[in-house]
Request: fold
Amino acid sequence: MERLPAFELRRASSLAEAIGWLAGTPGARAIAGGTDLVPNLRDGLGSPPVLVDLSGIAGLDALVAGDDGVRIGANVTLARLASDAALAQALPAVVQAAASIAAPGHRSVATVGGNLCVDTRCVYYNQSEWWRRSNDYCLKHGGDTCHVAPHGERCHAAYAGDLAPALIVCGARVEIAGPDGTRGIAIEDLYRDDGRAHLALGPGELVAGVVVPVQPPRARSAYRKARARGAIDFPLAGVAVRLSADAGRVASLAVGLTGTNSRPLRLAGTDAWSGRAIDEALLADLGKAVQKQVSPMRTTLTQANWRRQVAAVAAQRLVRELAEAIA
Amino acid sequence: MGKRLVSLVVNGRLREEAVGDATLLLDFLREQLGLTGTKRGCDGGECGACTVLVDDAPRLACLTLVARCEGARVETIESQSAGGRMSALQAAFHEKLGTQCGFCTPGMIMAAEALLRGDPAPDEVAIREALGGNLCRCTGYVKIIEAVQAAAGVGTPGDAPRRADATQATR
Reply:
């Protein structure tokens, strides 16, 4: 890779200071662990004049369990999340997702906020400057055509964060801090279906933390991903499931998906399955629903249709396994 | 952009150095301090060849800004041997043939060092997970895993070299 472009590094000591710098400096970017941002900058994907270092902000790495749930600060590292025994009991899908991200050398510094805001990925985007130049760049950066869908109007780069689908099925909310104060939104609403601008954050806004409510009694959750390498890799398709069941019937089912669209998805229509027996007919309907709602494009070297099928099969297997664990 | 002074401890020695905001820890170690044991492999966070320890945790030097290492304790492969003697991990990689071309070895050993500090007797799954981010194109990994087991004294009974205190050797 190339050396980093020149920038000024500013170490924020408070959220307000970071927000002020981000809102007041055109093109400034926030840096937490930097495991996504640094390689992208080294590939020439942006040249921010200022990087605002969030790692010194007091309290942003708090991980607090209370009566109404768990609050996970944006600076909590993935290594800490992945090794938290209490969370592994309360929110297994979230802990499994954290443990599946990259490798120990990344997780020791990569953060929850960073993984939620991880850039979208595409085989035409995550390339060196000379590679992209020789291909007339692409719609996501420097060009005017999406090489994945040249006749379309939008960028199809795929969202590849692992935590988001797990947090979606657990009903998490995101705390966003910005120049106008702090607001809370459902985690699904942090994302837009546009590979070029997939985060619904305004100027100067930052993810400050995630709040996960207490999970329903007898609910179980899990996360699984398909990837090219058995370690380190981004999901080609990732699936989180939270199931609560009673006597072999669905009490509630939530399915979150990543790697297949420009945003993480909550599978629509699962509420209608409450009361149904967990049998082959239900799993068939689940598989069909996943295949219909995901829209993988040719953003990876792996075939899009394989990713569609693997998302469906992973969802089916997780539901079957969770149902067996509950029974 | 201007430079700033950072002070950090590298392999037990306090360093105060002028660095650029955009200087990577990998370039700092190799070019400014001359510690070329840390290898530049993929140079993009995918191969683990540049793994070093920062405050006991494994880190990829190719993704780390040295300006953000103020006050940190950095350890590289050069910290492993002491007084001309190999550490337990180095000796085990040597004896178990965990090294072939050798390019991945510094990163492998530092990733294994991070593991053994937290888990002195890891099982094979833990070793595989700890080394999951480190690519080797020679060995097929079997000999590397055996080397870590031998260093930890958890390999086949009878053939493990006695484990020297690797943490002590780095101080």
